[in-house]
Amino acid sequence: MYNGIGLQTPRGSGTNGYIQTNKFFVRPRTGKVAHDTKGFEGDQGTGGISKKPNKEILEHDRKRQIQLKLVVLEDKLIEQGYTDAEIEEKLQEARKTLEAASEDSGGLTASDTK
Q1: d(Cα 63, Cα 77) in Å, to the nearest integer?
Q2: CA dist 100 to 70, 95, 96, 114, Å?
Q3: Regions of the chain where pLDDT drops below 70
Q4: Model pTM?
Q5: CA proximity to 99, closest of 75, 72, 91
Q6: Residues annotated as region Disordered (predicted)?
């Protein structure tokens, strides 16, 4: 036994009695605050709050939402029994209207991302 920790004897325990310290134990800090520390300056401590969204990612997300709506529409048209040519024609029309609607509502164009 070491400082009241561990086994009285390792005999019969299946171990050698070696005691390790807990490396992951975080000791609570005292309530003292160091007076010589500096405060935050300029952009320090913002934690990425002021980052602007990436235009390419926003454009990709917009296109993905349009494609998702087209896949749902295609499934409905197949269930309703339309031919492949009619489905392709309706999907092209729907794609044009969805892209125009998303650009009118503040979406990015390909020229904005470059």
Answers
A1: 21
A2: 14, 8, 6, 20
A3: 1-4, 31-50, 106-114
A4: 0.50
A5: 91
A6: 32-55
